[in-house]
Amino acid sequence: MKRLNLAKTLALTLIFSIIFMSCENDDNNTSNETMTSTYLYTSNNANGNITYYNVGDMSNVMMTTLVTSSTAADGVFYDADDDMLVQASRSNMMLEGFMDTSMSSTGASISIGISGSSDMMSPRELAVNGDYYVVADNADVDGDPDTPDGKLYVYMKDGNDFTLRNVITTDIKLWGITFDGESLYAIVDTTNELAVYSNFLANTGDMMLSATKTIAVEGIVRTHGLTYDAMSDTMVLTDIAAAANGQDDGGFHIITDFMSKFNNTADGGTLAMSDQIRVAGSSTMLGNPVDVAFDSETETVYIAEAGNNGGRILAFNNIGSGGNIAPVLNYDLASASSVYLVKY
């Protein structure tokens, strides 16, 4: 009888141990799972406010608008680690940083927590590499509108300040810019060309700088926005076509395996249309797509559309074959100017 009771006791002990270990493993697995959301930050030239969208669930998008002191703005950036939101103000002609914005409810006014000097004339896109913040300025440099030129303002974030380190003058017209490592890619405004400045941040003084390489992109009339996703090696470029037509002649081009295609195209050469995917047509609502963001995990392209219906934020996720496809998301945003995608 004692042996039987002992056997029962050992059996029950073993069962409870297994259950406990199973529950513990479940708890550990749950704690190790990282839940992330996807946010699209936007700026505009209508009122200078910042609107961001939680697009993690396309069927239940949540929108938040934050009121700023600017009346017009372009490039936008969000740092989730520091909960810092930055935009290039076109009314104040400076970089403006806002802290702890994730705690603000829609309609709240946010105050500048990090500021820089008012140096710029016509700030457009913003590209960030570590503590370096580079702004493309498309103001005419020499007073001759027929001369292709522009400026790249290089700022360093230091505590609560954006300090101007140097200014690069270019021999191309500027708009969209983006970093890949130490290389800065820039669209050549009023053309269908894409330029790259290798080891850009190594140029520490005020100077005139020519691009390391420039290529044309077949099928584009006039490019404006660009984004590069290193994980998928995908470049996306927008085409505003005729600036006077802001309703239906725009599009965007997707270039997969971008690095090999770019490297295999000679300086001054043309990247063939056969190496790209083009989305355009009346169903797209693309007239003047001025900026773009790309989510490689969901293969979704987000567009800041400045012209159609006065301005929209659009998203496309059926892009594999290109063509005249309708957006899966369509939100009115007057004079939309910039988009930035982040996951955290």
TrEMBL record:
Position of the signal peptide: 1-21
Keyword Signal part of the UniProt annotation: yes
SUPFAM superfamilies in the record: YVTN repeat-like/Quinoprotein amine dehydrogenase
Keywords: Signal
InterPro entries: Quino_amine_DH_bsu
Protein name (record): NHL repeat containing protein
Protein species of origin: Neotamlana nanhaiensis
Classification of source organism: Bacteria, Pseudomonadati, Bacteroidota, Flavobacteriia, Flavobacteriales
